[in-house]
Design goal:
By secondary structure, the chain is of the alpha+beta class. It contains three helices and nine strands; from the N terminus they run H-H-E-E-E-E-E-E-E-E-H-E. It has an eight-stranded antiparallel barrel.
Amino acid sequence: MIRNILFIIVVFIFTGCFTKHPDLKTVNSVNLNKYLGTWYEIARYEHFFEKGCKNVTANYTLNDDNTLKVVNKCTKIDTNKKSSATGIAYATNESNSKLKVSFFRPFYGDYWILMLDDSYKYAVVGTPSREYLWILSRTSKLDKNTLNRILEKLPKLGFATNKLIWTIQE
């Protein structure tokens, strides 16, 4: 009896560990030169490294070795203290839509560009695990129609819109 219970527990544990999300489609192509510059965070999934942040931006510049320098900035809501983190990113596919980003080398995380405006006015970035998601814009606010179109597509990609934290941009 105890043997059967242990077996069932082990099966549940391993089944939970191997839950796989459906494939996540990225955009067809990203021109990294057009992607360079400053992006304002419109919304995100909460995570420890941005907890309690407002006025969040990410700035991308091209390094000599064709990697990207990433500088993320934020202001803490409760103290108004500004902070920044500098990282590095590189493309892992020819379309430049799947990147690896690191702020804590040698550890890299996925940065997949899921939606990108033809004029590079907004981008939606996430991870295949669906643990991280960002809605980014070239301006501190995104027009309501564009935002609604993005929000309509997110569930189809496996992202819950009710998990979004809306970034304060002053």
